[in-house]
Structures are given as structure tokens and as C-alpha cells.
Amino acid sequence: MDIDLLTHILFTMVRIGTPLLLVALGAIVCEKSGVLNIGQEGMMLMGATAGFIGAVTTGNLMIGVMMGITAGIFMSLLFGWVTLHLRANPVASGLALTIMGTGLSAWVGGDYVGQILTGIQPVVIPFLSDLPVVGKVLFSQDPLVYLSLTLTVFVWFFFRFTYAGLVTLAVGENPLSATEIGLPVMLVRYIAVLFGGAMAGLGGACLSLAYTPLWTENMTAGRGWIALALAVFVSWWPERRLLGVGLFGVTSILPVALQGVGVSVSPHLLATLPYVATIAVLVLLSRNPSHKYLIVSGSPEKLWHPSH
What we know:
There is one protein chain. It is globular and about 60 Å long. The protein is mainly alpha-helical.
């Protein structure tokens, strides 16, 4: 394979994987606190819509990014209130959040379909960007790529070496015991849920402001579900996420790469590869008994409530 083609594939893989990396990171933190939120698709769409509208109306991309994060936080706050205070089923609430986000984003962003803006531009790091292959792939990206990698390291450090990380894990593993020793279970879970929403909103803003700087209805195209599958694929631990992002990034860019080298396969068939990979990974995980706990990790029985 030509070195330039390989470099382009890897460069695009990182760009495609960045929104997934951000959203999956939020899902991991949320699940580690004992709350399973499957509404990433809806939160991503709201983040993409709010981010694009904010950037277009103010002319400031950073304001757009902040509005995308805020939209994700607002959606997650609604989810947290319904599941933690009203004790609604988290799976049903997550699905409702996705449906709500899909419809609300289409309605709010209806007037902005087709508008184009100058998105977030790459920041080239001197000297490092001149390295062969790696330079373009890792050191010629936009700021949100660097932010996603930084956040991955931060969350890894948070769970491994900080007291707050241990508290979050304790709350997720056994909320009743955590309550008995005086840990603020409800507060910890709310913070985790809000962080998950912020990351989903940021992932959506990354799509509409950096990856494809425009807004169109349902532009996430299932990426929220793929990010959730990615979180399951890495067993909910952030340090393994880069492997998962690489897998889904490669399957996303592979159709373009194969067409570039002259492979005669239907582009519609190739476009299904990321979703086929998602299903294949989940099937393989379902055959491993050590992952069965994931199915019940967000069940109502694990949700803490003062009446307990």
C-alpha cells in the first residue's frame, strides 16, 4: 500500500474516531457510577445542533462548542432527574432520551440545514508534525482531537490514582454500602451523568463543527450507538478505548480506501461495515460470561434511593 494512502487512512481514522472517543468516555464514567445511560445518540444530536447554531449565530466556534456541551448537559440532567429521583427504568429512559433528541434536534435545527461554516481548523505542532506518517496522523489534527486524548488520560488517572475515582467506583459497585459509610451516592451519580452528557454534547459538536462543518437532520447516523458499543467493547475501562476507536475508525474509512485502490464493491455495502463490526463485537462479548454483568449494571435494583 502506498505510504501516502496509509497516512491518509490513519489520519481520517483518528478524525472519525474522535467523536466516538468522547462519547464513549462519558458513557464509561456514567456506568462506573452505577447508572447506565443509553441515550448518547439523542444527546449527540442535540450537541451537534446547538453547537452549529451557536457557531453560526455568534461567529465564534468556541461558543458553539460550549453550547454543544451545554445541550448535552441539559439532556443528561433530564435523564438523571427521571432515573435517580423518579426511579424510572434507565433503559426505557435512555431510549426516550434518544427519541426526544432526534425529534427536538430536527425541529430546532430545521432552519440551519444546508448552511456551511468554516469549521475548526487543524493545529499543526511544529517539528512533531514533520515526522513520517505519525506526524500527520497525530500532530496535525484539530484541537478537539488533542482534547479527546487528554481527557482519556485524565479519566484513566482519575479512576486509578484519585480518591474521587475510588469513591465513584464504590458508589457504582455497592451503593448501599457506600451510603452506610457516608458517601454522597446521589451527588456522585448526578456528576457522572452530567459528565456523560457533556461528553456526548461535545462529541456532537465535534461532528458539526470539525468533522463535517454543517448541520443536517440525524447527522450522527447511529454514532451514539456505536460509541455505546465501543464502551462495552473496552469493558468500560478508558485506557482500552484507543483500541476500540481504532477498530471502528478503520471500518468507517475502509470503504473509501477500498474504492481508492479500485476494489469493485457496492459503496452501500461497504458503508455498513462499521455497524457490522459493532454487531460482531457485541456477539463476541455476549459469549464471554465475564461480561454478563454489563446487562444488569444499570438495572433499577442498583439505583440508590433514600427509601433503601
